[in-house]
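CO-FOLDING WORKSHEET

Operator: S.A.
Ligand of interest: 2-acetamido-2-deoxy-beta-D-glucopyranose
Run index: 357
Mode: holo prediction, single chain
Checklist:
[x] sequence pasted
[x] SMILES validated
[ ] output reviewed
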Amino acid sequence: MEKTSSWGLHLFELFFLVLLSGYPLCCQGSWMWLGITSVGVVEKMGCANLPLSSKQKDVCKRKPYLLPSIKDGAHLGISECQSQFRHERWNCSTSKQPSVFGYELTSGTKETAFIYAIMAAGLVHSVTRSCSTGNMTECSCDTTLTGSGSQTEGWHWGGCSDDIAYGTWFSRRFIDHATKNASVHADEALLIMNQHNSEAGRQAVAKTLWKDCRCHGVSGSCAVKTCWKTMASFERVGNYLKERYENSIQVLDRTKRKFRRKEKEQRHMPIGREELIFLNKSPNYCVENRRLGVAGTRGRRCNRTSAGPDGCNLLCCGRGYNTHVVRHVERCECKFIWCCYVRCRRCETMNDIHTCK
Ligand SMILES: *[C@@H]1O[C@H](CO)[C@@H](O)[C@H](O)[C@H]1NC(C)=O
Ligand SMILES: *[C@@H]1O[C@H](CO)[C@@H](O)[C@H](O)[C@H]1NC(C)=O
Ligand SMILES: *[C@@H]1O[C@H](CO)[C@@H](O)[C@H](O)[C@H]1NC(C)=O
Ligand SMILES: *[C@@H]1O[C@H](CO)[C@@H](O)[C@H](O)[C@H]1NC(C)=O
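OUTPUT RECEIVED:
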């Protein structure tokens, strides 16, 4: 723990909330022990006893009702990261030590970039949800639009538009401000990189906002149409960020609080707020490296016919794969019998499972 930067520590603290809360992130590998903790532990412990920095404890004391949103946000971020990367060599796997994400949290690679972005976005998303459900005094629906609209297109703003302003502000405050107090270990460039990518995550929620509408009028005639702004599902935010990850930009370490692209020909091009940036090239994640906490892909399941990252060739890094036959039993050919039950047959299939050597 001592060796992680305050940034690492900070995120660790955030995830600790998830762990303590017994979230049903369930239940693989190091998450297994989640099952034994009970929901509500965090609330009972009180802010003072939580593993938070002094600034975060402050926020927690003044706004204890935000704790569920913080937990939700962390949960959203982690599970979306794992879902986006489930077929890749780096699969966003988590562990307890030394920080939940291990090496990737401090390596300054594009994986670090994605983690910071998705966690910051998760917080915006969950806090905004809480605003929209009317659970907060600080925020509610965005009413600034109400009344306007487009007469020619036949719709007007109404209903509850998601107001991401508060969630965005809160995410900045909770993640960035709390970590401005950098420890001696924290590397300045990495800090700024992380901050940029957290902001890119928040931008992702803003950029994926969309307009949903409902028709009113006699039997769905749509004489009147009411529209409201709504956040995209977090999965869509994840897709958006995954795309930014694929196109992330390597920057130079020599920072005067402003990064420039590493690529010589592109140095003059500005870097947008929504872009993900990274300092260091990633390891190849093919072989186990205990020092870096890289698990390697040995034993990972791969797809023999896929040309994508989950294909055996790519995932196994050319080492080849083993094939096992697995028997799969399921209910099939179900029939409805009058009256009233369903009768099925048991069907057995043999499936080939491929795992990396
Ligand atoms: C990621 O891959 C490792 C093996 O490299 C595996 O043990 C782990 O369960 C995977 N994690 C997830 C979240 O899929
Ligand atoms: C609203 O707040 C109450 C108590 O403060 C809490 O029990 C409930 O889960 C919250 N609902 C949402 C949707 O956050
Ligand atoms: C910064 O960190 C030091 C040492 O951990 C702590 O004593 C101090 O209160 C922190 N300052 C703020 C503003 O959080
Ligand atoms: C393997 O990849 C192929 C081609 O992408 C796909 O059609 C198939 O569903 C995949 N199989 C599994 C088990 O994921």
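REVIEW:
DSSP finds nine helices and nine strands in the chain.
The longest strand covers residues 321-337.
[x] output reviewed
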